[in-house]
Amino acid sequence: MKRLILTALTAAMLAAPVAAPAFAEAPRHQDSDHRNDADRFDASRYNGYYVGRAWRFGPPPADAYHKRGFRVGYKPWRKGDHLGYYGTRYVEVDYRDRHLKAPPRGYHYVRDDKGDIILATVATGLIASIIAGSN
Question: Sheet containing 70-73: which strands, arranged edge to edge?
């Protein structure tokens, strides 16, 4: 009986260092190249991403999360941007309801998901002006 208990105790002591890493917490990387799911693209908070210094509108492809210098972010509209570059949620608005001037021929007003009113071309989506915060 003593021999059985001694054998079981010895086996447990030898197996403990092998089993311990399975219960240990995974190492946290301080490096910005390793992201967790909280840093994933969320269209309600972000409208694009950076890889290094290059900005791109829209959700990133899956391999972008592993590139050096990757980070999601929000970049406000600028004159000269295109509405069609990323699938932002925007709707056409009636300028008379917003007390705006009539848009020039070939242009229309749209409201984006942040509440900004944007004057853009109908054909290409090129932004001519932004009226920020006009909810």
Answer: 54-57, 48-51, 70-73
| Domain boundary assignment for the chain | 43-75, 83-131
pLDDT-flagged residues of the chain (< 50)? 26-38
Q: State the Cα–Cα distance between residues 92 and 94, nearest whole angstrom.
A: 7
| CB-based contacts of 20, cutoff 8 Å, min separation 6 | none
The token pair at 115 is: 């509440």
Written as one letter, the residue type at 63 is D
In whole angstroms, give the CA distance from residue 95 to residue 38: 39
Tokens of 71: 């980070």
Please give the pLDDT value at position 52: 86
d(CA 99, CA 112): 17
